[in-house]
Amino acid sequence: MAGETRGAERAIGRSVVSLHGVHPRTAINYIAPIPQTLTLAFGEHGPAALIAAMLVLGTAGVHAAVAFGLLNDASSEFYALAYLVMFLIPICGDPILRRRLPRAVAWICGAGVVTILFIFMLNAVPFVGEVRPGVFAAKVPGTTLLVNAIGWLFYRVRRGRAATAFGDASF
Asked: Domain for residue 40, yes or no?
């Protein structure tokens, strides 16, 4: 999505410089960058504490099959969110980009958006004997929203630190 980022050539380059500035001897792991980023952000045991918290919250008061369904559905929503953003770019992204794309791309991406919305609704339906399906239906998007809110807060805190370190508030 570098085309959608303001000043991508600067921002992406600065993020790499920032990573290596904080961890100069750390090579970027191209196979598993997300776990590497979490490890660098939270320390060696940080991702484990975050995952353990999700497991405890996801399994509170339910049977193992229901807990698995909740965590599985919430994790598939993380991927669905990324695809939703990707599908929305040709529909409501940068006007210059939209004008350059064939009209059919927007229609096909519209079908993708509808599919992702269907996935969100389907994820809220428990397929295992859940006693309270309404609670399950609230936990799935609730988990997704909570984790994304934590991620957003973490991003804002780290962005502020990086901007201070580089002396540039537009980082």
From this structure: yes
At residue 111, φ and ψ (nearest 5 deg) are -65, -35
**pTM across the whole model:** 0.55
Tell me whether residue 32 is in a domain: yes
Which DSSP letter does residue 4 get? G
- How many independent structural domains does the chain possess? 1
CA distance readout (Å), 74 to 17, 35, 53, 59, 130: 33, 18, 14, 13, 16
Backbone angles phi, psi at 41, to 5 degrees: -75, -45
Q: Which of 149 and 39 is assigned the larger pLDDT?
A: 149
Exposed/middle/buried for 123, CB within 10 Å: 0-12, 13-18, 19+?
Answer: buried
Cα 123 to Cα 108: distance, rounded to the nearest angstrom: 23
Q: What does the mean pLDDT of the chain come to? A: 74
CA distances from 49 to 38, 41, 57, 93, 156 (A): 11, 12, 12, 36, 21
